[in-house]
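FW: tagging you since you asked about this chain on Friday. Here's the raw sequence from the shared folder, copied in full. Didn't touch anything.
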Amino acid sequence: MGFFSFIVLLAIAYLIWRVTDQLPDLIFRLSEIQRDVAEIRRRLAESADAPAGGQGPESRSAPAPSAPATPAAGTTPSAPPTSGGGSDTSGS
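HL: got it, structure written out here
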């Protein structure tokens, strides 16, 4: 019985070692997925804000007088940028 318990303990230690060995890669992949989801949400929000009716740029001469030319300073994006996490991929 003691030998069997020792083998089970070794198996558990090995599995924990394998999981912790893969954690940095897993965290990086999760941050990439989170960034992709935020980009999709931003694009969906932008497309929902776009005018409907199939008006192209040639049919619109000028923006409506009540619409501001630039976004207000107090506006925030629909999905805030993710914080750090060691996944700085700005070069790729």
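FW: The two ends are 54 Å apart (CA to CA).
HL: agreed, and The chain has a mean pLDDT of 75.
FW: great, closing this out.
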